[in-house]
Protein: Sulfite oxidase-like oxidoreductase
Amino acid sequence: MPNLSVTAPNEGKAGLIPAKTEPENLECPLGLVTTWLVPNELFYIRNHFPYPQIDMATWSLSIGGQCQRPVAFHYDELLKMPRVTKNVTFECAGNKRSFLTPPAAGEQYGIGAVGNAKWTGVPLSYLLDLTQIDAGVQEIIFTGSDSGQRPDMPGEFNYQRSLPFQKELLAECLLAYEMNDEPLPFKHGAPVRLIVPGWYGMANVKWLTGITASATPFEGPFQAVDYLYLQREDDYQQAVPVTEMKVNSVITWPSRGEVLKPGTYVLRGLAWTGKGMITKVSVSTDDGMNWTDAILASPEHQQFTWTFWEYTWTISSPGHYSLMVKAEDSLGNQQPRVSAWNVKGYGNNMMHQVPAFVPGTPMVH
Amino acid sequence: MPNLSVTAPNEGKAGLIPAKTEPENLECPLGLVTTWLVPNELFYIRNHFPYPQIDMATWSLSIGGQCQRPVAFHYDELLKMPRVTKNVTFECAGNKRSFLTPPAAGEQYGIGAVGNAKWTGVPLSYLLDLTQIDAGVQEIIFTGSDSGQRPDMPGEFNYQRSLPFQKELLAECLLAYEMNDEPLPFKHGAPVRLIVPGWYGMANVKWLTGITASATPFEGPFQAVDYLYLQREDDYQQAVPVTEMKVNSVITWPSRGEVLKPGTYVLRGLAWTGKGMITKVSVSTDDGMNWTDAILASPEHQQFTWTFWEYTWTISSPGHYSLMVKAEDSLGNQQPRVSAWNVKGYGNNMMHQVPAFVPGTPMVH
Structure:
């Protein structure tokens, strides 16, 4: 028997965290993320339907609708087009849903349905320009290969989302075929995935197969039923669409319930926002009574990406501590202490709170 | 590019769930457990200290203390001794701690710090008999190779626990060197781990290196400070030791927050207890107002092991449902609706509750 160590094969290992098993919905264990770009195998995975079947011998991406020149391209053709690389953080609109009271329907994500990666692909505008889109087009519809049934209406649906036909927004987007310098993993949407910087993750349609210019608003269920901030069930008249990410932050160390001795520690975490830049992260160790600025500690500080933060905490006495974090962005957005509840539990950017415990020496006898 | 599918290499995968990263504390994603014996790589992992270094060239198990013939054995010698195989479920005493209000110190486990496996090794009684234990011995102390500092007192400690010197209890125990017919994985305590059927997991000392008969009660900190039901901090005079598992049960399907359409479903879960046998599992779909018996659905129904349960649920109308489960055992033990809070958050066997949602057809227009 050789010497024993943690490098032994077949040992249990930490992995992605199932929020739901069918279809697969896996949250990232953020406490294990030590690099600014999340390794592909630790990036969160959110599916609406079972994984699709994709035959690369016949696969193509069609771009058409209200335009002068509908086009279609094979994968190899896309690779030969102009390419762009962007670091983009995105977060599932349902991240932090498990902290809502009462519970809202949907996967009960903790803090880990968020990630930052380097995406490489074709600029969306390059492809749209080829098609010569008609005047009067209002939206661009993106169709994924994934399909299935919904719990709330009969029929079979592909996952489809639209974006408004706004030049600045579309100019930011790309059709990614690489993730962190590797071919885009299948579970993240290979062969090609839309990336919409600054928006919640539902915009980033995976397994893209069609792009359609439309003169009318798209009303598919993932646009007109899901991904709306609903105050009451069926109050769709008042509903506001989920679009850009709200400013948000989390504590990644210590873990919830950590037991520490008096001493000096570096609290760590992440902060991100939609369109702006993170300008300030503040930490409280007394349940939000007093706040101190944290250090923004990322190797790179760019629009559309998250930032690490660090805060040096000296504990001088035993007690129960409530650690909290909040972030602000360059557009003046701040996080609320308690999120505004909504029926489908989207966009919960309430401050993250982590209890920590510093015991005294036990007086056993 | 070949056809794309979920079998692609390097894809993100579900794994054990980190409750704490250092030392490694990993919970089982119970929703992914489909076999009565949990595969080794999915069995939960609870560490008090960093993983130890074990050199098998010099490793031996010493058995001594208050006895006539202290002995020591190499690994190969243990393998040649009489062997016994037992299926044993055990649960971390801190399982379900995250459901306590207010939070209790320690890893915030959900429902997954529990597992069932087939353990093979040397009967503990066989080894104790070899040593001819003295009259007057009160306890047997088990020493693990794992060691480190504690947050609440100075010094370096090995993980050590004792058992009362009671013949029937010790006769159930084994020193396991196999888990599910494979050599015991290092992370589960190789070369040898104590298994105490019916007790919470803290009794199952890993990386065992010494067994010591003692004429006085053991007062190491994992016996006399931790693993006590404490009603108030430092009220150690009134503290009750954590020993046998309480009756407990969980829902493993549906996941929390699941969105379903009207129809018929099979709810699934697990139930277990300490000394007795699970005799009844009941399910409520209306937040505990009405209860119906579930079917005990395990391939084997044995003392010291968990049982699968199933419950067929027909949903006829949309709504918000609160699914709950409770179990009873042959000793008359039942689960409480709300657990009795204790300082260190042990033994929480409160009923597991899972919200589920059945939407109506949305009236979008």
